[in-house]
Amino acid sequence: MSNTTVGLGWPERVLYITLATVPCCIFLFINGTMLYTLRSKPVFRETCRYILLYNLLFADTVQLTLSQLMYILSFSRIFLTYPVCGVFQMIGNLTNPVSPLILVVMSLERCVAVCYPLRHASIITIRNTAVAVIVVWAICLLNVVIQILLLLEFPFEELETLQMNTLCKSASMFLTPLYYDYDRVYTYFLLVSAGITITSTYIVVIIAARSASTDKASALKARNTLLMHLVQLGFSISSTIHNPLLFAVSKLVLFSVLIRIQNFFYVFFIILPRCLSALIYGLRDQTIRPVLMYNLCCQIKLSVISVKPKVSP
């Protein structure tokens, strides 16, 4: 979050925080219900693709919650201590790469289902899926460990107090050029590798769909699923261009216009990509959809029932 909030009065800050928080809370409610749905029945807990989807949603939900918290702190001009800011930065760095990596695993699972339908059950097992999930989180954790080692170069001994006098962001914690070089290489390598892998599986499935021995309906469904994975990866990439794009726009427009653009960019590039997984996969999947809609409706009814006694005379 940039320093564009300087000069705003509290009414304006409350307005912009509300405009961003309301859709975020709605999406967090949907994501939370989706996570509950994926743990509510054995068919979801014991099916590999739903296990992967749960991890994808969990990482997106953590990212969404953390982003909104940092947004509110930024607009409220609340400065954290260096240890607290460091914890927030590490949580974000841990969960952010999970989404593209899980999408890669989900794409490979669909590719195996189409190309090796008879061996799919023996290859894509609960155990193998658990190993893949552990490997994904281990890769992300290794990234955090490397960043912590780079953080050790921060001159903490020169600080008079641990209280920050700037907003919590990477630029406030990581002062060495080596960190930005590493972060840039890691991010580009991760996203390019994920894009190549998902695109390759999409091409393989298209080729398999033309084979006479392949189930045409299954191949078509897998192709659409992989195309959806590519769209999801595109939304994951969109969050990485938020700050550079906002910085470029800040040089072209007035301050009052920049504030509105900043909120639009935040909702479109940060909030929206983190909530689309629940909407796309939940409404598209014939098994999840009825359970998800039932849980959503019940949650809404319970909320209404709990409010009614408070407003009744």
What attributes does this structure have?
313 residues; mainly alpha; globular; disordered C terminus
Describe the structure.
α9 (177-209) runs antiparallel to α10 (216-238) and α11 (242-250) packs antiparallel against α12 (255-284). It is globular, with a radius of gyration of 22 Å. The chain has helices at 10-38, 42-45, 48-75, 82-95, 98-115, 120-123, 126-151, 170-173, 177-209, 216-238, 242-250, 255-284, 288-311. The longest helix is centred in the middle third of the chain and has 33 residues, at 177-209. The protein is built from 13 helices and no strands. Helices cover 79% and strands 0% of the residues. By secondary structure, it is mainly alpha-helical. 28% of the residues are buried.
Strand and helix map with partners:
Layout: H1 10-38, H2 42-45, H3 48-75, H4 82-95, H5 98-115, H6 120-123, H7 126-151, H8 170-173, H9 177-209, H10 216-238, H11 242-250, H12 255-284, H13 288-311
Helix pairs in contact: 1-3, 1-12, 1-13, 3-4, 3-5, 3-7, 3-12, 4-7, 5-7, 5-9, 5-10, 9-10, 10-12, 11-12
* Rg measurement, Å: 22 Å
Biggest beta sheet summary: none
| Helix content percent band | over 70%
Q: Approximately what portion of the residues adopt beta-strand conformation? A: under 5%
Total helices: the number is 13
Query: What structural class do the secondary elements suggest?
Result: mainly alpha
Order of helices and strands: HHHHHHHHHHHHH
Number of E-state strands: 0
Uncertain stretches: 306-313
Overall geometry: globular
Indicate the mean pLDDT. Answer: 80
N- to C-terminal separation? Answer: 45 Å
